Amino acid sequence: MDDLDPIDRARKAITDRAELPGMSLMEHLDELRKRILNSLKFLFAGFIVGWIFHVRLFDFVLKPLNDINQTLNFTHPTDVINLYIKTALFGGAILASPFILYQVWLFISPGMYQNEKKYVWPFMSITILLFLAGAWFGRYILPGTLKVLIIDFGKGFHPIITIDEYLGFFFAIVLGLGICFELPIVIFFLALFGIVDAKFLLRQFRYAVLAIFIVAAIICPDPSPITMCFFASPMLALYFLGVAVAYYVHPDHRKAKENVAA
Q1: Which end of the chain is more exposed for a tag (fewer CB within 10 A), N or C?
Q2: Quick check: pTM over 0.90?
Q3: Is the separation of the CB atoms in 135 and 97 below 8 Å?
């Protein structure tokens, strides 16, 4: 399989899995509708819990700005209530994420072999932990980032920070890094389905570094190389973690282990 490119590997993986007992198109659509509705129910329940604690969530979101003695401004009468709704939705989505991920797993599991379904709980646990680690990292660097942008670069100017602009910036950093930290999970599925392997990932390392630094440049508000490296470093470490994951879950490796055991 080493002589196949990722597109050919994807085609082969789809062809192999087409032989699995499956559902018709209408059954797939009905299953998708069911999983989406269940996910929306969990999200709504999480939003209700988030709304109950929306004041604490608001304090959590606002703290990086308070740390540099800045206040929020609003330009529309509904901005404040929108702020509370968005923060409650943000907290509720994180709270509901394990249940939503389980719905995702239930939708894709019919296309997986029986021995692959054992990864459900590791998948869910690691996915949540990686997202929370990325979100924590974003929240950790946010006060310093705001200080550089507002206090250092904005010296001599009067900042007027609106609710919408701050929330957009906060979520871009926190959620953006949370999503970036899911890189090993993406590699996990690509390797599990036989589309990529550890050797391929190591051969393409230079392109991965380029892509990671492009992403770091997009989500990094400070253009200095040191800050950009600070953003890119954990993603590079996660890429190598993904290489190890790809080696472990790739079908060729699993078959070799089964042959040794036999």
Answers
A1: C
A2: no
A3: no
